[in-house]
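Good morning N.,

You mentioned wanting to compare the apo and holo forms, so I went ahead and generated the holo version with flavin-adenine dinucleotide. This is what I fed in:
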Amino acid sequence: MSQLVWLRNDLRVNDNPALNAACLRGPTTCIFLVDASQWQHHDMSPWRVALTLRTVDCLSQQLAQLGIKLIIRGCNSFAEAPKVIVQCAQELAANCVFFNAEIALNEQRRDDKVEAALEQSGIQCERHHSFTHLPPGAVTKPDGSGYTVFTPFKKRWLAHPLALPSTPLPPPESQGPTVEPEQTPNNVGGIEKTFGADLWEAGEAAAQNCLSNFLQSRAKLYSTQRDLPDQPGTSQLSPHLACGSISTGQCLYAAYRANDNRLHGGNAGIDTWISELIWREFYNHILAANPRLSRGEAFRRETENLEWNHNQEWLERWQAGQTGFPLVDAGMRQLNTSGWMHNRLRMVTSQFLVKHLFINWREGERYFMQNLVDGDLAANNGGWQWSASTGTDAVPYFRMFNPIRQAERFDPSGAFVRAQIPELARAQGKSIFTPWQYTDTSHYVKPIVDLSAARDATLAAWKRMRATLT
Ligand SMILES: Cc1cc2nc3c(=O)[nH]c(=O)nc-3n(C[C@H](O)[C@H](O)[C@H](O)COP(=O)(O)OP(=O)(O)OC[C@H]3O[C@@H](n4cnc5c(N)ncnc54)[C@H](O)[C@@H]3O)c2cc1C
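and this is what came out, ligand included:
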């Protein structure tokens, strides 16, 4: 009896429940589907596509050394997945297909269809869970309903009997002699596999290094350094978590051990980092409980009536990092040149788009997804709806980050802005915050809006929308 494991965003041999269960059952083969058109349809960025391909290659080699073949097949859409998986299972005479569940709506529907097609062909299907530490639906209020506010969710999450991370699952045992590893194509949908390879190292070993370096040298300073974009204060594990070269469970377990076997009440830095991992859990649980979010709907239905600005020029200037507000522009340029943006800047740039430019959050959500190496529907949607005040536990509608004050607070020396914006590389003193007011920086693009007028216009639009509710 042979088993087939369908790998998706769980690209690792360690702590992989579906792979582990299949290999315990008997001889196992794995499959990965290269689905360029679906990736494009889901706005997956070139950074993330290329990183995924390189990660699959690393995994293919690891599996090959364990005597496990990873088959790489092309697929043209989610609709084609049932046919390809059933065909492959039949070719291998597999009696069961294993996979780790995904949370977004389209992925769940695809998986349901695959499961039905397998059943029709007399092949069993086993779903496991691994994208979050606690499965969606596990953290509920006493009345069984889900949480929509982070703090009580976190409290309940921490009190859950399965919250304490246990030793991560080991890699499967060797199945026999090394096999020839298959590799992904060098170019998929026009994206070179090597794109971004100098910035984003792929694979499980790279993810583990990233985690241990962070925990050894930076985690204890996380609570004081994490908001400073010119410091390497955060882990940069998000690309690995997105494609699954590391699991949340592995991150939590390592943090728990580094924190004297505590998830909270230990070192302030590590406690805060664990809390961020719980934010990831929170947004994934919210997405699972509210499938309409996967369809692009606002969590707060009344906010669908907001009359957003449709200003293509403003949108394009925001995307290009040409708004005239240095910290906003520096964040967008960091994204455009590296595929990653510091969390503080994700908050600053998103708030600027949805609050000062009053452009629909969906435009920003899409642009981030198309450009982030760690693009993840739950975290991205959660972050954008938080900024736009349309989501769960969102910032109140009348609160707006002032990009000048944010720069003074979180990039006080201007080091980050100078590094990202060559036009301001030689800006002196306070001219780095408001370059339009100084002669030596007057060549830098002028501000796109007057902050105070923009703020008033946005508040007025919100008030108009709220007036229609009463
Ligand atoms: C508008 C907006 C869009 C975002 N889009 C994404 C996205 O597409 N993908 C993504 O992974 N994160 C997203 N985030 C959350 C956060 O900015 C990133 O997770 C973080 O910057 C990644 O860097 P890091 O790995 O160094 O994080 P660390 O600070 O080291 O945190 C560790 C991990 O915790 C999780 N995490 C941290 N902060 C958050 C958060 N606010 N929400 C959910 N999970 C969090 C991430 O998995 C992260 O890798 C977004 C935030 C905002 C405000």
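The pocket of flavin-adenine dinucleotide is lined by residues 226, 234-238, 241-242, 276-277, 279-280, 283, 343, 346-347, 350, 368, 372, 374-376, 379-380, 382-384, 387 (CB under 6 Å).

Happy to go through it together on a call whenever suits you.

Best,
F.
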